[in-house]
UniProtKB/TrEMBL annotation:
Domain of life of the source: Bacteria
Protein name: CobQ/CobB/MinD/ParA nucleotide binding domain-containing protein
A Pfam entry, by short name: CbiA
Family annotation (SUPFAM superfamilies): P-loop containing nucleoside triphosphate hydrolases
Domain CobQ/CobB/MinD/ParA nucleotide binding residues, every copy: 4-111
Gene3D superfamilies: P-loop containing nucleotide triphosphate hydrolases (3.40.50.300)
Organism expressing this protein natively: Shewanella sairae
């Protein structure tokens, strides 16, 4: 059983969105997935109530080890709980957003595989400047796309077959697929 934790010290960085899309991508390739919503806000559990979700979502860690191929943990922003497995850290490409998270990363890298994700990437000066100054070797990019907002509005994810002709979906699936490949590698 593999574990992917989506972690960040900040709220609103895309943890729930990325957790949901990764879970959808993993189901799409035939894996049995459990999403653990560890955040008190419980957006993940709330989304699953739309019944459009092809994986199980539970609040908090179950008592017994779940019988699945992949566990994805949507972590709360302020916690001392150590993320398990491969850790995905989303942040926006601005000094302020990065600064809030950056200092925790070296310590985590000692014990976990860490993938930094520049989320909500837009082609604007502040982000272009920031990205010029960092290495993209160990970082992946998820662009700002309205499709990520529209699909989650009713608990769907971009791998839902009913959505296959929606604007931007092909590109979104590609970037989430790349992230899942990297996380499972
Ligand atoms: N790549 C993206 N493109 C567009 N909107 C995004 C993207 N990632 C996240 N969002 C939006 O940002 C907001 C916060 O995302 P969310 O996943 O709830 O963050 P968190 O779980 O870290 O609090 C939501 O409105 C979500 O739709
Ligand atoms: Mg969340």
């Amino acid at each position: 059983m593999k574990i992917i934790s989506v972690w960040s010290r900040k709220g609103g960085t895309g943890k729930t969105t990325i957790s949901y899309m990764l879970a959808g991508a993993a189901v799409d390739r035939g894996l049995k997935v459990l999403l653990i919503d560890d955040d008190n806000q419980a957006s993940g559990v709330w989304l699953s109530e739309f019944n459009n979700v092809p994986f199980e979502v539970v609040k908090g860690w179950p008592e017994h080890q779940p019988n699945v191929d992949l566990v994805i943990v949507d972590m709360p922003p302020r916690t001392d709980d150590k993320p398990l497995g491969t850790v995905i850290i989303p942040y926006q490409a601005t000094p302020l957003d990065f600064g809030a998270t950056a200092r925790y990363i070296p310590e985590l890298r000692k014990t976990n595989k860490v993938i930094e994700v520049i989320n909500r990437r837009r082609n604007i000066a502040i982000q272009n400047e920031f990205i010029k100054g960092i290495s993209l070797d160990k970082r992946m990019i998820i662009n700002e796309r309205s499709i990520y907002q529209t699909v989650t509005a009713n608990g769907r994810n971009i791998f839902d077959p009913e959505l296959k002709n929606k604007y931007g979906i092909r590109e979104a699936k590609q970037e989430i697929t790349n992230l899942l490949n990297e996380a499972l590698a």
